[in-house]
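Continuing the batch. This is chain 6 of the set; chains 1 through 5 are on the previous pages. Same settings as before, nothing changed between runs. Recording input and output for traceability.
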Amino acid sequence: MSDSAICSITLIDEAKVVAVRNALPPNEVLFRLAETFRVLGDPTRVRILQALSLQELCVCDIASLLGTTKSAISHQLRLLRSLRVVKHRKDGRIVYYSLDDSHVGNLLREGLCHIVTTTSQGVEEK
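Output for chain 6:
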């Protein structure tokens, strides 16, 4: 970080600090948000979520699509379910997975939109 991006004096605007402190969600909520973003930090999980944003799929479908084992996909889906990012429904002996709600799909779309926009503007940092 360049020196120009750091304040050269200490000046605290107490009114702003109090207003922001009062507007922040509780720490427990922010922790859950951080966990949700952490789960998106794995390319395999992102691929699973992107696929599920397009179509409800079973473990076998996802494993075939990603070229991996059912065991590996099941492990990832357990984690995604525990964080309430995906949900499942049973149809006879087959379990189908889908995104838990529209917010997850929105989050994926917003992330992709950000990547496409910053890449097309030449802002992408390496």
